[in-house]
Amino acid sequence: MLQHALHLAGLRKLEFPEATVSVTPGRQSVVIVDEGQLPDEFMKIEKRPDKSAIKEMLERGLPVEGAALSNGAETLTVRVK
């Protein structure tokens, strides 16, 4: 709302004893218009574990090298009546 008010007043900056409020231009950023046209050299391939599939196998008793089931940390629950 303050930025809009500055815009309506035609101001870029207001100075107060407590603070200075200013509007600055946005930073330049990349916008992907069509991901399919990007060359492969500009694409990242992410490799990460499929924890759902791993958990399913471990729960069936089947081994998955590099993974194990573990209980999470205890939690405290407070119920108010």
Brief overview:
The chain is an alpha+beta fold and 81 residues long. The chain has helices spanning 2-9, 51-59, and strands spanning 13-15, 20-22. The protein has two helices and two strands; from the N terminus they run αββα.
List the helices and strands and how they pair.
Elements: H1 2-9, E1 13-15, E2 20-22, H2 51-59
Antiparallel strand pairs: 1-2
Largest sheet: 2 strands, antiparallel
Principal-axes geometry comes out as flat
**What series of H and E elements makes up the topology?**
HEEH
Would you identify the regions where 5 or more consecutive residues have pLDDT less than 50? none
Widest sheet, order of strands: 1-2
Contiguous helical run count: 2
Mean pLDDT score: 93
| Sheet/helix structural class | alpha+beta
Q: Give the % helix.
A: 10-25%
Strand content: 5-15%
Radius of gyration: 27 Å
Number of strands: 2
Amino- and carboxy-terminal Cα gap: 40 Å
